[in-house]
C-alpha cells in the first residue's frame, strides 16, 4: 500500500473540514505535520481543526507553531486570539486580534472580534469569558 505524502494528507484533511468532520481532519493534519513539521499552512489547518473540536490547548500550541514559522500569518494571529479568549486572557487575545486586523483591515471577521472583545472592561473580561463558557 502506497503511503500518502503531506500534500495528499493536507488536501484530504481540508475536504473533511469542509464537511465539518474536524476529528477526521485532525488525524490527517497530524500525519501531514509529522512529514512537514515546519509547514505553516499545515499547522494553521491543524490548529483550526483542533479549535473546532473544542481542544483549545492543542489549537493554541499549533497556532503558536504557525506563528513561529510565519509571524505575518494573520489568520494564525486571529486563531491565537480566540484561543487566548478561551483561556480568559483577553488583553493578550486583543493584541493578536488587533495584529490580524492591522494586517487585513478590510476583514469583518477580524474587525468584529476586536469590537466584541474590546467592549469588555479589563477586570470584567475574565468574568465575561467564564459566563460565555457556561452557555
Structure, explained:
This protein is mainly α. It folds into two domains: 70 residues, Tetratricopeptide repeat domain (Serine Threonine Protein Phosphatase 5, Tetratricopeptide repeat); 64 residues, no CATH class. The chain contains eight helices and no strands. Helix 2 runs antiparallel to helix 3, helix 3 packs antiparallel against helix 4 and helix 4 packs antiparallel against helix 5. The longest helix is centred in the N-terminal third of the chain and has 14 residues. 36% of the residues are buried.
Condensed summary:
The chain has 135 residues and is mainly alpha-helical. The chain is built from 8 helices and no strands.
Annotation keywords:
8 helices; mainly alpha; 135 residues; 2 domains; 77% helix; Serine Threonine Protein Phosphatase 5, Tetratricopeptide repeat
Shape field: elongated
**Major β-sheet profile:** none
Tell me the number of helical segments per DSSP (H or I, 4 or more residues long): 8
Q: What do we call the CATH homologous superfamily of the largest domain?
A: Tetratricopeptide repeat domain
Give the tally of structural domains: 2
What CATH architecture label of the largest domain applies?
A: Alpha Horseshoe
Classify the secondary structure makeup into a structural class.
Answer: mainly alpha
- Low-pLDDT runs of 5+ residues are none
Q: What integer value in Å does the Rg equal?
A: 16 Å
Q: The CATH topology of the largest domain is what?
A: Serine Threonine Protein Phosphatase 5, Tetratricopeptide repeat
Q: Name the helix and strand elements from N-terminus to C-terminus, one letter apiece.
A: HHHHHHHH
Write down the CATH class of the largest domain. Mainly Alpha
Overall strand count: 0
Percent strand equals under 5%
Mean of pLDDT: 91
Helical percentage:
over 70%
Distance between the termini: 47 Å
